[in-house]
Amino acid sequence: MNFGFSEEQDTIRETLARMLGDHATLEVAHNRLDSGEGFDTATWSALAEGGWLGLAMSEEEGGSGMGAVELAILAEEIGRCLAAVPFIPVLCMAVPALQSAGTDDQRKSLLPGIAEGRTIIATALAEGGGLAPDTVSAKVTRDRLSGQKTPVTFGAEATHALVAATDEEGTPRLYLADLSASGVTTRALDPVDRTRPAAEIVFDNTPVELLPGSDPAAIKRLLDGAAVLAAFEQIGLAERVLALTTAYARERHAFGRPIGGFQAVKHRLADMFAKIELARSNAFFGAWALASGDNRLPEAAAVARLTALDAVQFATEESIQLHGGVGFTWAANPHLFLRRGWQLKAELGPTAIWRERLLGHLADAPRTAS
Amino acid sequence: MDFSDSPEEAAFRAKAREWLDANATLRDGSEKVQDHFMARDADEVARARDWQARKAEAGWAGLTWPRAFGGRGATPIEQVIWNQEEGRYAVPPNAFLIGIGLVGPTVMIHGTEDQKTAILPRALTGENIWCQLFSEPAAGSDLAGIRTRARRDGNDWVISGQKVWTSGAHYSSHGILLARTDPSVPKHKGMTMFLVDMSDPAIETRPIRQISGGASFNEVFIDDLRVPDSARLGGESEGWKVALTTLMNERFSISVGRASGGARAEELIDLAARVERNGRPAIEDGEARARIADFIARQRGLEFTSYRVMTSLSRGEAPGEEGSIGKLLLGKLRQEMGAFGMELAGTAAGVSTAAGDDTARWRNEYLTAPGNRVAGGSDEIQRTIIGERILGLPPEIRVDKNVPFSEL
Ligand SMILES: Cc1cc2nc3c(=O)[nH]c(=O)nc-3n(C[C@H](O)[C@H](O)[C@H](O)COP(=O)(O)OP(=O)(O)OC[C@H]3O[C@@H](n4cnc5c(N)ncnc54)[C@H](O)[C@@H]3O)c2cc1C
């Protein structure tokens, strides 16, 4: 047993932090928010050039054959610098979906493009405020997809989409759609975080390809894995907002001393820290469960997500508060984190969904000490 | 990162399990909510002592202690494994948390060789039971405000004063006692630590009843207690440094020890399935489901946090301030779970109809938790520790810092 990162993993983190720190600065985040440009293609290309997009692909798939823990490190660093990149849909969902449920042909035709940053696969699992496999009304008949998916993060920027739809028997499955195909209408939406653009995609008799290994259980597993990795992105975000709020509390003076010396402020920062650490501990367990294929993954994912959602919401809201009037301004940093936090919440669903997943999973589990 | 056992760890776990199977019985439902952590009376102490002696004989006590002091020289991770395994069995409440968790590590760092040999092995076997004589009526959070005086008399020290909230003093054989030896210097500077024999007639112990009904802590009156200089632990006037070692280990023991014991949030799922709320099983009630799920998420986080702390330890890092995280979050979680467990009974909330029923157990959890939020440094003090020592925020204003104690 060992509940920490290895030295090699620490080195990976340092390299990533340096690289992302050069590209995805908070200034870049502000500019993107102002311009509404969204997708930070420069950072995505840099990640591709560094070989990071192929992190969790095997060498024959064109990647470097690392695992979920390394992906978690990347997630955390992306979260820390608010990089506006489709990390979760592409690397945490599309890639594992292709790997676990796709065909050899699908993998061969798509994975290299993903690793090179050319192919962007959005994941269209949400509609009607819910998530597949529980909420699915899009349908596929004779390899043609019809239905509406919304919101799809990076839907307008993507080349492909991984879409949840029911097959002819009414079972939710995953299908691959080329977004340049016929019958695809994409409309940009107005998300709380414009640096994480979202779209509505309407499919009208669009040709699609089934991922043959996909079934409701596989979709759930995919969401569990993505939730674990997203928790790391959330933790990176929360740690950064805590760090910059702590720095502010040390500098900003009132009543003759730094505001961080006042307990109401100091103790709130301590609460942020404790919530983040709690989430981190759960996320560690999640990363391990994901990497090792442990059957407690559903539980691990749910507890990681629930505590990460709580940590992010608390840290971002209180960051604004502790910055005073400045915190309420568009030019200040705290709202960037608040917005990203909400977008990360929306993408894989809020607390209500994950509480139910947790209880659903535990309902049959033995409850005396095991 | 690996939450599964290495082959050596699996072998260790199997050995632990084998011994536990032969020497204890697995917990059954009736013991799910352990209503107290510390032994309370002579009968429980006798059972605790017997259990400790058997463990010590078989090499399962003080796992991480060096062999020279009767320990097993095991790794912190092996300690985690042992805690997990022992937690599955109905074992007596602990009476040795202070001796093994607090006094032992303090003596290992600050004690003389003679003190180590005299104290450590007997603390481990349970032959000696230790209590912590730190807090006083006018000095709790502000521990450095203690007034108990120790005066030199030839080669001896004579100690007088009053301690309070001393857990287990009524059944302890020994105590670690912080006293003021020099009131002419500022308060943090004039203290010295002593190791005292609780059976001395100069010490009088009176149990104090708690809101949970039991009496596991005491007030202790010390009236001209004479001890030799060899009872001094650490240097003269270095008591604060020694106390900080004890307090750090206390936070650490509480957060690591409790995280794997006590009431389990999952038990609330079972309870909610048996009782009704708004005309249907409570487990179908949205609010109840939300609360339970959040409790589980927090409890898991605390467990895994304690494993992370053990991992840092096994990499040779000293127990740091991380103990404050568990210490801060645990009491409040227990309090909220206790309240919720009681509320599940609806208009019968808090009304026990039979000894040991669900209400009685959760009520006890609820009435015990406030002690967790204060003992070992209150929630507020933990937040200050996190804020100042981890986040580096400016320290509290301390108006009495540079004033001689005698002028305060
Ligand atoms: C169950 C239990 C077992 C205990 N066992 C032992 C034992 O075995 N040995 C021993 O020596 N002691 C023991 N204690 C004592 C414990 O360490 C003290 O109660 C604790 O440190 C608080 O001190 P106090 O009771 O004097 O409260 P106070 O220090 O008077 O605190 C009162 C309130 O003020 C708050 N407060 C105080 N100072 C500050 C500050 N600077 N900033 C913000 N808030 C502040 C506190 O958080 C608390 O809410 C035990 C206590 C309990 C409840």
Q: In short, what is this structure?
A:
Chain A contains eleven helices and eleven strands. Chain A has 370 residues and is an alpha+beta fold. Chain A is globular.
Give structural notes.
The complex is a heterodimer of chains A (370) and B (408). In chain A, 53% of the residues lie in helices and 15% in strands. By secondary structure, chain A is of the alpha+beta class. Chain A folds into three domains: 7-93, Butyryl-Coa Dehydrogenase, subunit A, domain 1, CATH 1.10.540.10; 121-214, Butyryl-CoA Dehydrogenase, subunit A, domain 2, CATH 2.40.110.10; 217-369, Butyryl-CoA Dehydrogenase, subunit A, domain 3. In chain A, strands 1, 4, 5, 6, 7, 8 and 9 form a seven-stranded mixed β-sheet that branches. In chain A, strands 2-3 form a two-stranded antiparallel sheet. In chain A, strands 10-11 form a two-stranded antiparallel ribbon. In chain A, helix 4 packs across helix 7. Chain A is globular. Chain B is α+β, with helices and mostly antiparallel strands and 408 residues long. Chain B has three domains: 7-125, Butyryl-Coa Dehydrogenase, subunit A, domain 1, CATH 1.10.540; 130-237, Butyryl-CoA Dehydrogenase, subunit A, domain 2; 262-390, Butyryl-CoA Dehydrogenase, subunit A, domain 3, CATH 1.20.140.10. In chain B, strands 1-4-5-8 form a four-stranded mixed β-sheet. In chain B, strands 2-3-7-6 form a four-stranded antiparallel β-sheet, with no helix packed on it. Chain B has a two-stranded antiparallel sheet with strand order 9-10. In chain B, helix 4 (97-110) runs antiparallel to helix 5 (113-125) and helix 6 (239-259) packs across helix 9. The longest helix of chain B is centred in the C-terminal third of the chain and has 29 residues, at 286-314. Chain B is globular. The N and C termini of chain B lie far apart (52 Å). The relative contact order of chain B is 0.10. Chains A and B meet through helix 7, strand 11, helix 8, helix 9 and helix 11 of A and helix 3, helix 7, helix 8, helix 9 and helix 11 of B. The structure holds flavin-adenine dinucleotide. Chain A: This is Acyl-CoA dehydrogenase.
